[in-house]
Amino acid sequence: MPVTIARPRSLRGEIIAPGDKSVSHRAIVFNALSNTGTARITNFSPGADCTSTVEIMRALGVEITRESGGPGIGDSLTVKGVGLDGLQEPADILDAGNSGTTTRLMSGVLAGRGILTILTGDDSLKSRPMGRVVVPLSLMGAHISGRSGNTLAPLVFHGGSLKAINYAMPVASAQLKSCLLLAGLRAEGVTSLTQPAESRDHTERMLSAMGVKLTKSGLDLAVEPTELDTVDVEVPGDISSAAFWMVAGICHPDAELLIKNVGVNPTRAGVITALQQMGANLSLINEREVAGEPVADVVAKTSELNAIELSGDIVPLLIDEIPVIAVAAAMANGTTVVRDAAELRVKESDRIQATVTWLKGAGIDAQGTDDGMIITGGGSIGGGQFQSYDDHRLAMSLGVAGLLSDEPITILDPDVAGISYPGFWRTIEELGGSVG
Ligand code: S3P
């Protein structure tokens, strides 16, 4: 059912960011492969994507328990490791739903095993590029087939034995990096990777905490086959979810929001840097470390924003936040230019096209380019009815726009927010954005 959001007179309150999606996937997958017992994971992401990972691991014979934590608390899970070679052949096709992270991480786990597995997902997932994992895994000796010349899911993993490779990654992708590091754990020899730029490093942090022999030198990584120790994980809040409230807080004319428990790992925190460069009144308080990840509370207050240029190495560090940064750009003075972000075209939707389409519909001067977009802000956003193209981050960016726009904004397909943030619309309502 569509929802309509209208701008509240003021925007004040405290929000607890839900558990991080990237860390949650990794906590399940890596602990399932450990051979030292049972791990406990708390503040697990409530989104559907991470549930896809849980269900796939269960289908492969891993025992996982899950207890609901209630709103704002996050679920608690236990995972009993089966060891690197303990996964069982599933009785059916594995369904990753909408989750690219599940598909690419699991490709590294399923490649070169003595069991037959087939991995698929929804229409969006089946259109996303999988050649980027199939090519290097095949070089390692895996036998994988897929649609469209082995570039699209469903992917079929037949077996083969893995040997290490030295691989120059063609894209700065944490999903690809993680896939190859996972495959490297079971390959003969030392697998080494060169990244074109830094991307989120949760995999490196967690595998190192589990005793994996993993070295890093600049953009180069090397991993040796190692057995994994179990690690308990308290998942930090998701900065990608917190980013919606940061933008709402800095753009609303009368706002002060406290966003608690936000993971601020430097390889994820590009959104804070970019918004601060725009002039945002964003401050980090109560900085601490939780399960090897930096965490802080973030205060976002009404700000006067100016346009920026976003390009180069910062792009992978804020790639998921560009749809909501575009909302800030629409409210800023001047012309914001985003470059080097062609990856946006192959996310859950073509996020360049989807973002530019709704911005134009709301009266903003916006245009897409091959690898980014150009947005001229005017300090206001018009209203209207928009669709998110089944993309959770688009739906929530539209929700933030509704908290700021002169006329109400209707989102025709809001439920997709549940992919990463099922409580999003409830929080909008609590903040006074009428949800009709
Ligand atoms: C993710 C990595 C990013 C990001 C995705 C989650 C991860 O994708 O867009 O939402 O958990 O590794 P790429 O690494 O492919 O850019």
Task: Report on the architecture of this protein.
This protein has 436 residues and is of the alpha/beta class. It has two domains: 3-18 and 236-435, UDP-n-acetylglucosamine1-carboxyvinyl-transferase, Chain; 21-223 and 230-234, UDP-n-acetylglucosamine1-carboxyvinyl-transferase, Chain, CATH 3.65.10. Helices cover 31% and strands 27% of the residues. It has a four-stranded mixed sheet, with helices on one face. A hairpin with a 2-residue loop joins strand 16 and strand 17 (293-301). It is globular and about 60 Å long. The chain binds shikimate-3-phosphate. Shikimate-3-phosphate binds at residues 22, 101, 173-175, 178, 199-200, 319-320, 343.
Please give the alpha-carbon distance between the first and last residues.
Answer: 10 Å
β content, as a range? 25-35%
> Any idea what the CATH superfamily of the largest domain is called?
Enolpyruvate transferase domain
Instruction: Return the structural class.
Output: alpha/beta
Global outline: globular
Query: Order of strands in the sheet with the most strands?
Result: 22-23-1-24
Give a short overview:
The protein is α/β, with parallel strands linked by helices.
